[in-house]
Amino acid sequence: MKQRLVAMILSGLFCSGSLFAQISSPVQSGTIESLPYRLRKQQWNEIVSERGLHSSAFRKADGTYVSYFSKELVNYYSPEGKLIPVNIELKQEKEGWSVSEQPLPAFVNTKGELSFRYNEKQIVFSSAVKINGQSLSSGSANVHGDTAIFHNVVNGVDKFILFRQGAVKYNYIFKNASAVPQGDLIIEEEYTADEPFVISAAEELSEQRAKGVAGHLQMINSAGKEILHLNTVFCYDAANNWTVGEYRFVQRGNRVQLQLIVNDQWMHDPARQFPITIDPLVVGPTTTYPNFYMPSCFAPNYNVDSILITVPAAITVNNLSVTSSYYADPFTTTVMGDGSMYFSTSCNQSTIFTVQPPTGNTPGTAYLEDFNMKSPLMCCYPQTCNQYTFYLRMHLSRSSNGSSCNTTYLYYTPSTLWPFSAYIEGNTVESYTSQVYLNPATLCANTCQTTATIYARYGVPPFTFSHPWSGTTSTAGVPVGCSPVNEIEHLTLDLPNCPNYCDPATSLAVPSPTVTDACGNSVSGWPSLSLTIKPVAQVTATPDSLAICNGADVNLALNACLPGATINWFGNGISGTGNITDSLLSNTDTILHTSNYSAFVTMNGCTSDTILIPVTVEPNLNINFTSDPDPVFITQNTTFHPQIQTPGTLLGYYWNLGDGTTESLSDPQHIYTTPGEYLICLGTATSNACVDTLCRLINVLPLTIVPPNVISPNGDGINDALVFPYLEFYNGNTLVIMNRWGQTLYEKNNYQNDWTGDGHPDGVYYFVLHAGDQDYSGYFHIMRNK
């Protein structure tokens, strides 16, 4: 596939190769990137230590590495032996301007007259200029960069001068018909040198015609070295009609009178469109090729030349921009459309570049400027941590005029404004687009994780991704030629000191991630990261737990540590906001019952952790007591023993022993002096302030039982049974009743005072009673009629 060249025509008629055709550029106009390399590099920082004769290196403001390689000199040695950059921009001097920062310094005075300085010797050309006999005057000049324009050097004629490395292209621009005199156009110039030389027509690049030499002239010094070269006088008008002018010269010693002649018939043809420009190219003695020009070969063959490209270590190349050109010599009637060129490396080759009609039907310079050929020419070179080199080859062919490889018809000239050159752009590992962002970027203060999305490219993969807040390290990417190796990684970040309650701060600074490529280079220039924090309060309960008695109310104060928080609670089947209030909690069991209340805070759309507030309900106390002995007797020491059932913790005892005596011992001892009933009370309390009291009557008995001496079981309800007073308090007693002859009539354990003598006649009877520790015996009478 062939790539079309798009024409760019400078105004006017051009002689000596001033018709140009340019390949269309993929960059946008109006931006710094739309400028050619030679202008863009002024915006970059040069890496001085990497200068070479044919190469330079730079850093862009964004850190991109740029390395430039060219067939022409990029730097040259100063008289002090230092490599300094070639600079073809004009600098003001006392009597004109100079282009002195190159091996072949050039000068122009205020009339537009030119000279070179070669090996400390002066070569003056384009001096004493006359146009059809009229000498040049000092017109107003506009000087910018490598260009100078002198207006109205004669009436209606401007002189345009473009400086190149070791060469000068200058145009005489005839702006309208009144500036063109009758007859042939003759421009007279004088050439001088500080050393002997011979001027002659260049072999194979010129021929003798009726008025002079058509083609190239050259000046050769006594050592046989070319010190000046004049290209063909090639002329065309604004409509691209063109012709070849002729040189006529007379040499006297080291001085040459030179005439540039343009045919009267062509100049005054009614079809001429103004402006018309006459533009000889004068080239100095500094050359690149042994034969000055790079040949073209006859299709399908191509002549090949190359430049060695060095790729620094540890970068991804994102641009291989190539510039080159070829020249279709008008002397041979070769046109730009006859030529084609392409470029190759060991990886692949580019498309074939040509110039299409109508510009392709004219001679002149076809050029390609800063065309990115990274793909396909570098696709077999993956990223590496080591420096490597490759040859970039230029292939040049023509489709007409001769069958061999030569420089007669179509060729590359090193004096071109578009030398065979290339620059690479590359970057060590860096981030891109968003660089790094957090999702979510807004968190509640008790949300402890977010995700960092991290971007990395260039450098040499694989990339290692890590972050101080992530417990993991990941790797991604493999070296791939022609790829920027874009990688996106997601790391989970655990926020330190989280959850962070009660802090009113609304932002949290987040440290940058670390991304390192296979060469150990790290991404720098991370943006500042922060999380937007929505403060969250925490709730506290006063008290934080509660124990109450059966039937008591619950009252708990809840507080939030930040203003504006809403306190929520729930438990025991109810819920609410603010303080906890619940009533009459019941526990009729014998164990502790616990009800759990929960509370949390909502604020800023966030919810705090939930706290648990246990409320323990004690059942009522189960109180009893015993006495030892039982029954209680007067004058005897009695010990009271509490019998209390409770799951709580008892705090103490309160005894009221019924006779005005109180005690706080758990097992008090007491002696009663008077028989009778006494109301004994036992009170106690638990650690949860649950209080209860039990009161019970007890009988205090005399020490002895007074036996009866008569019973009258006649049914009148009075003294009907054998009753021993207080016997009911003597459990385990035994009673034996006998007649007067000692015969046992009745025997009973645990006698209940209920024997009435049924079946036994009135008379005297004998009893034996054992009660407690005492034995009682005696006689009693049964008297039914009493």
- Low-confidence spans: pLDDT under 50, at least 5 residues? 1-19, 23-33, 286-291
**Largest sheet, strands/sense/barrel:** 10 strands, mixed
Helix content: under 10%
Query: What class do helices, strands and sheet pairing give?
Result: mainly beta
Give the beta-strand count.
67
Core attributes:
single chain, 786 residues, nine-stranded antiparallel beta sheet, 3 helices, 67 strands, 2% helix, 50% strand, disordered N terminus
Commentary on this structure:
- The strands form 14 sheets. Strands 1, 2, 3, 4, 5, 30, 32, 33, 35 and 36 form a ten-stranded mixed sheet that branches. Strands 8, 9, 10, 11, 12, 13, 18, 24 and 25 form a nine-stranded antiparallel sheet that branches.
- The termini are far apart.
- Strand 19 and strand 20 (213-221) form a beta hairpin.
- With 786 residues, the protein is mainly β.
- The chain contains three helices and 67 strands.
Sum this structure up briefly.
The chain is mainly β.
Write the layout of secondary structure elements.
Blueprint: E1 2-8, E2 20-23, H1 37-40, E3 45-46, E4 55-59, E5 65-70, E6 75-77, E7 83-85, E8 91-93, E9 96-99, E10 106-109, E11 114-118, E12 121-131, E13 134-135, E14 141-144, E15 147-154, E16 157-164, E17 167-174, E18 185-193, E19 197-208, E20 213-221, E21 226-230, E22 234-236, E23 242-244, E24 246-252, E25 255-262, H2 264-267, E26 276-278, E27 281-283, E28 297-298, E29 303-311, E30 316-328, E31 339-344, E32 352-355, E33 364-372, H3 374-377, E34 388-398, E35 410-411, E36 421-427, E37 436-439, E38 442-444, E39 449-456, E40 463-466, E41 474-476, E42 487-494, E43 507-510, E44 514-516, E45 529-534, E46 539-542, E47 546-549, E48 552-560, E49 566-571, E50 574-577, E51 580-585, E52 593-603, E53 606-607, E54 611-618, E55 622-628, E56 632-633, E57 637-645, E58 650-656, E59 662-663, E60 669-671, E61 676-686, E62 691-701, E63 710-711, E64 734-738, E65 744-749, E66 763-771, E67 774-782
